[in-house]
## 1
Amino acid sequence: MTNRSLSLLTAYQRKDYWGDKMVVVYSENQKLACEMLSKARELSAELNEKVTAVLIGNGKDQLSSELIIHGADKVVMTGASLSDLKAEEVSDLLCALAKEEGAGLMMIGSSKDGKELAARVSSKLGVGCSTDSKKLYMRDGSICSERVVFSGNGVAVERFTSRPAVVTVPPKAYDPLPADVGRQGETVRKELPYGTYGSRTVKVDPMLSEGANVEDAEKIVSCGRGFKNSADIKLIEELAGALKGYTLGCSRPIAADLKWLSEDHWIGLSGHKVKPKLYVACGISGQVQHVAGMRDSGLIVAINKDANAPIFKVADYGIVGDLYQVLPKLINAIKART
Amino acid sequence: MNIVVCAKQVVDVGEIKVNPSSGKPMLEGIPKKISDIDKNACEEAIKVREKVGGKVTVLTVGTPDAKERMKELLAMGADNGVLVTVPDKADHLVTSTLISKAIQKMGGADLIICAEASIDQFSGQIGPRVAGLLNIPQLTYCYKVTAEPQKLTAERNLGDRLVTSESSYPVLVTVTKEVNQPRLPSLMQILGSAKKPIEVWGTSDIGAADLKPGIETIDIKGVAMSRKNIVFKDDLDESVSKLADSLSKEGLLG
Ligand SMILES: Cc1cc2nc3c(=O)[nH]c(=O)nc-3n(C[C@H](O)[C@H](O)[C@H](O)COP(=O)(O)OP(=O)(O)OC[C@H]3O[C@@H](n4cnc5c(N)ncnc54)[C@H](O)[C@@H]3O)c2cc1C
Ligand SMILES: Nc1ncnc2c1ncn2[C@@H]1O[C@H](COP(=O)(O)O)[C@@H](O)[C@H]1O
């Protein structure tokens, strides 16, 4: 390490150098905000900073006490004049808040909105950002974050050398603190500056959902492009039925391109991360991006007609064969054993 | 219309092997390629140019060998390339600053297209960061883009809802894998791409010689996974019955 970076590092480690006064928590998803507050409390004790939660837009007044009883010292309500919470304006508000009040760490919920927001905020503040942080901790006076890289093939340990450290946090990474109804906190309304931009929201449509909850499923039977048409999905439904306690999953093209199943079934790097006791992959090649979402499953079974398909490398049991022949036989065999 | 496609050379993550003793991913000697969805970004840029006219520039921050990969995008139909030499220590802060400075040196762009995310980092940071640095609108996760001379309309997948947005130019767009099917260049186009110019700029050429990253990667840990890898490939009836017996033994049929 050069002298220069060494002296910079020690300077960063000296609390007074940062001039940071708070950990900022922001997500439009109230549950996720409470999960982050729990982690923020833990870190704020180490950093000796206050925890500030942010509410943006109008009509959010009643949410403030909820954030305080779950760990916020202060709630800042801002952007009351914004009816459309676009990343451009919201990032201006968060940057203004960070600068005005001295943020040392900003935790933003890792929804798609949160990710694009955090990246824009970091660029405007000229600092680093760790997306989808799985673990967040202090080590030798620096904030460190761990995140999945190489499409699931590694976990990077990242150390912040800039402040505020900006991270996005996925749902369910931390347990929320139990509600402490006696907890006192301050709620302030604050108008912060934001710019005007040439973009606007024309229309918002709900995302079609079939209500699959793959994240909590005990057994998942998944389909991929090995299926020739959407009607054939009944084959995995039957298999899933024979296995009892099942949920259907799928690869990205089945949901995103073909739309045979809604996106709540989509498993992988860009979809849901699952860890059932049993995961059955039918007609799925097993590209790294799919495996990234199901590698923590208890037992993995693969059915694929190509003996060289990468899915077999990550499977406990596999059958090389045409799923149109294998599945009916397997359904019968399972029924005979239960 | 001046269109810039941001494309990145990455290691082919599907080819990464695990070091058996350390359990860490081995990154040396892995083939490199253009990050998958960056090809969709390039395809979309070409489609926009076909509709409203203009020029498509491929912009890469990378090592000198990235030039070869950039030619694939020129063969698809991009007009020219700019390769900015990546400094030793580059995080998203450094890379996005170099991209925005390079775009400024080009005289600006009306439309900048990035992928929703790269296959090695999968952070989706570069697009919004570049938009932030240039202080322009960002339309992310676009699965349909309609460009007209005065405005651009995009249909966006934000995970929990579908949003239609529009913007004046300049605007930065990030596209999903579903936005299009990247064309495969013909042999003629591949040969022709050799004549298309790729300029190489150093960090000092764009006034960004002294950039410091905001994050240091201090370790890459492995993600070990051990599986039984029992594959039945002989008689189908026998295979099925062995699999069903195994599942039953594992207590998974109850
Ligand atoms: C940034 C990024 C993120 C991504 N995120 C995800 C993600 O979250 N989830 C995801 O799934 N993908 C994701 N992908 C896409 C991923 O790379 C693969 O393209 C995708 O997983 C392939 O889906 P598939 O296995 O269904 O289709 P294919 O790769 O086309 O595989 C079909 C398989 O079916 C087999 N088959 C065909 N016919 C039969 C038959 N009759 N019987 C048995 N087997 C048969 C074939 O041998 C083949 O192996 C992502 C890609 C990128 C670039
Ligand atoms: N080094 C780079 N050079 C050019 N474009 C890049 C670079 N890194 C990232 N990008 C663009 O930003 C997208 C998102 O990358 P990432 O933030 O790494 O997920 C990529 O798909 C590219 O379009």
## 2
Amino acid sequence: MRLLWHSDIPLWHDARVLRATAQIVSVIIVVSIVVFAASNVLSAAHDRNLSLGFGFLSEEAGFPIAESVVDYDEAKSFRYAFYAGIMNTLKVALIGIVAATALGVVLGVARISTNWLVSKAAGLYIEIFRNIPLLIQLFFWYFGVFLLLPAVENAIKWPGPIYISNRGVFAVWASPTSTFGPWLLFLLGGLILAVIARFALVRVQALTGKHAYTTIIPLVIFSLISLLGWFLVGDTPLAQETPVLGRFNFVGGIRFTPEFAALLLGLVIYTASFIAEIVRSGIQAVEKGQVEASRALGLTEFQTLRAVVIPQSMRIIIPPLISQYLNLTKNSSLALTIGYPDLFGVGRIIINQAGRAIPVFALIMAAYLAMSLTYAAIGNLYNHHVRFVGR
Amino acid sequence: MMTTNPDTILPPQTDAGAIGWVKTNLMNSWYNALFTVVMLVVGILFLQMAIGWAVFSADWSAVTSNLKLFAVGQYPQEELWRVGVVLFMLSSLLGVTWGVWGGVARTFALVAIGGAVAMVILPLSMDDLSIEGRLWIGANAGFIAAGYYLVQTIGGAITPKRVIWAWLSSFFIAMVLIRGFQGLPLLPLVGTNQWGGLLLTFNLALVGIVACFPLGVLLALGRRSNLPVISLFSIMFIELVRGVPLITLLFMTQVILPLLLPESIQVDRVLRAFLAITLFSAAYMAENVRGGLQAVSNSQVEAAKALGLSGRHTMVFIVLPQALKAVIPAIVGQFIALFKDTTLVVVVGLLDIVGIGKSIVLGNVEWVSTQREVYLFIAATFWVFTYSMSYASRKLENALGVKRH
């Protein structure tokens, strides 16, 4: 003992021994749980003659998906079906993030409005929708609103060719014609010129100290060039496509299914209430002295907001905002309960069809983890960026 | 020559009075005046429509005829007295808490008394609520008052610490009463498959809260541990669980867990849902607690060491109390989220209050056309509890002087 440790501390009080023991014991526990579970899985798989590999992914899926961003049909493989599910999740998540941010910012600003009524109304919205579970809100929108809308024959006609029925919302949409490609080139050229002009004007403004209209001139350049292109390419690049009532349903235009519409509405309304609180606390966290100082320097109210308050509150707002985006994406898995074929919903069907729970769950988890990591990476990048600029 | 006499300068216009209030709060600029008018018009139109619908065209019979189902699901009628006794116990405790602390407890006690009395005098046409049931509920008002007067009369013996212990033990007593035991004559087993409605919702939430808190603290400590293996396992668990939706965990415990266990071990469905909710919340709780641990200044640890406290004592008596106090708002927020998340058990077929509404009430041809009414009722019920929790949390923050971030 003495030879080994050169110390008078008994073995059971020696920090090094304790540290090593704690780690070895925890490794043994975790490994034995994993081995125990794995052996049970293997024996169950063996008994039921199930393979645990991913080979089945190339087999024909053979089930329909109600709606899909990508071109999917029953003859495609399981792998492609899963891909269609991922794309559906991304579709609802991306549109939802944009809409929830817009609504949340409006509500957050309204919450700190000097208008008592506006502020209270925003507060009421936040307290109501934040405190009701999303699942109940989704059920309400789907079963209580969208499915109870009139049938297609009696669809509610919104001003303009927008029809709302229990088969979904149908709206006028622009479909590209043969000249769409050339026109895109004009758009691209206009964008490049506008960016160049913007850089040049910012430089001129910095050098001369005179107002150089750094926003308006690039915008005018871009719109003029795209307008010019519209007439130069000959035929109109985008044709108006109006939904028309066919025998069973509307044909043409763009369609939002009730499942998609209810899911999107539920996610946006729910998430916006959280975003509003983030925006409110972010703006309120900017010191009052900052506003007073910029007023003293003669900045206008708009300039104060744009150059002083918003940049500082952004640092506080962005990190929790990104975690709300992640929440929205994860919450979109509730699509399963109202039949929108998202990643999770399609995964469930594949489990039923192919009977392979473990590999499919591994895929589902991997897909969500990949999304989480992407959001985390964006958040870290932003944090790094503001830290670099700030110090 | 003109001199300005100070007496002739008019005093600044006062903002007091109703007109002054309207001027500063509703009409302080032309666009705010416009907003006010637009919001008033839209608000009044909406309220008129909503009230008109709720009073005249909505059919609330799906709710009024199924109050018992929504409350306790398919809990056997002859054992319902056990739920009643649990309510009496909680009511008395609420009364005692009111007597000891006042403040928020007083507000809650008064609201609960009001609710109990309201249930008794609800219109008699609600056939689902028997006279007996009304009396059981109404008696709670008496138990709250009794608890309050108990403190008023014997006072000193009831210390805040004892009240906290009483609340903690009431959880276990309630669980025993509601579940019962196999073969016990007075308290026969009521299996979890018979739990339902609000009773199941509360059970899921309470078990989740009680179990996820210590697990979350352990995970947070593990993550900050300087033993690399333990910290690695904690980080892996936390990030893996936080990266996926709860619904994945719920399905995994339903579908995969039976595969991971030998076939001789069968785990109850409700227990598996408990497991998923607890593991999910624990990962989030760990991150909240970690935030608190980081907020505790290192000098506190150094001072504790200088006083000769051991590592364990430093953690338990110095670091953790300060860390947890700093993140009370986040922890309560997590509890509220957990309470809302319990609704997801619907997707694995459990009959919590949402499941009762969706499968049992709306599955009935008689009420299938009253989707809106049923979901609005469930939403309102949930809102009352979640709003109370966030109200209590705000009061607690003010009382403890911690700031919400």
